[in-house]
Amino acid sequence: MVRKREPLPNENELVICTISRVFSHGAFAKLDEYNGREGFIHISEIASTWIKNIRDFVKEGQKTVAKVLNVDRKKGYIDLSLRRVTDAQRKNKMQEWKRAQKAEKLLELMAKEVGKSLDEAYEEVGFKLEEKYGEIYSGFEEITIEGEKALEGLDIPSEWKEPLIRIVRDNVEIPLVKIRGFLDLRSHLPNGVEVIKKALIKAREYTKKKYKDIELEIRYAGSPRFMINVAAADYKTAEEALRFCAEKAISIVKTKGGKGEFIRES
Are 59 and 53 in contact (CB under 8 A)? Predict the structure, then answer.
């Protein structure tokens, strides 16, 4: 079961929960990330509309996203709300939950190789990555990109490092950020077309050499315009590579007496 390090959630936190019991005045829900602790959703917090039959809105076994309204840490009471969760928040939290489930499956694989329990995998690896990167799966994505460098500053036992890096790199695919811009290039020389063609080839070579892990495509978009598509692991790298490529092409064309302009697609 996906779990959090803390035994109880914080107020205003969004949590994944499963409806466990439904009554006329409200419903109890088990918090999936907090070892099945139960919270209560009063009927007034079920929906923003008038409720004739509460079972039209919640049923036992239903998995949903709730907002934590109040936590009594001494008694362990937790008050929840469904109606205060927006559609966007629900969607984002569900995506986060799916990433956490993927992360747990990988931790299970590592634990099996190392000969330890899943609880030990969380304590010795997972929670340390979560503390540094915000979530375990984000830590895995950093490992995919940076390798052992991503583990710097983390007190992860050496026995975990080789299987951790290998299993993560075999199973975690980095979603690429994709952006584009347009480049207007002009040359009035008799061989102007060839000048622009060589400038684009050189610009692409220089950019790929500087930003080795990006995907870069330059396409003709109708004279004098060219489209530059860049895909990278993060927005900052993609933006830098896009502008670098455009500026390099413009610079080369200008040395031949031509001119150019870069237009960033909004």
Answer: no
What's 88-171's CATH class?
mainly alpha
Tens digits of pLDDT across the chain (266 residues): 688 888 899 999 999 999 999 999 999 999 999 988 999 999 999 999 999 999 999 999 999 999 999 999 999 899 999 999 999 999 999 999 999 999 999 999 999 999 999 999 999 999 999 999 999 999 999 999 889 999 999 999 999 999 999 999 999 988 789 999 999 999 999 999 999 999 999 999 999 999 988 999 999 998 899 999 999 988 899 999 999 999 999 999 999 999 999 998 76
Cα separation, 64 vs 61, in Å, equals 10
CA 150, CA 65: separation in Å to the nearest integer? 31
Percentages (nearest 5) of helix, strand, coil residues in the chain:
45, 25, 30
Query: Which residues belong to CATH 1.10.150.190 in the chain?
Result: 88-171
Superfamily of domain 177-264: EIF_2_alpha (3.30.70.1130)
Q: Using CA atoms, how far apart are residues 205 and 197, in angstroms rounded to an integer?
A: 13
Cα torsion angle, 87, 88, 94, 95, sign: positive
Look up tokens 């590592």; give the residue. Answer: 110
Assigned fold of 14-85:
OB fold (Dihydrolipoamide Acetyltransferase, E2P) (2.40.50)
Query: Is there a contact between 214 and 208 (Cβ–Cβ < 8 Å)?
Result: yes
Burial class (CB in 10 A: 0-12, 13-18, 19+), 107: buried
| 166: amino acid identity, one letter | R
∠ at Cα 233 (13, 198), nearest 5°?
155
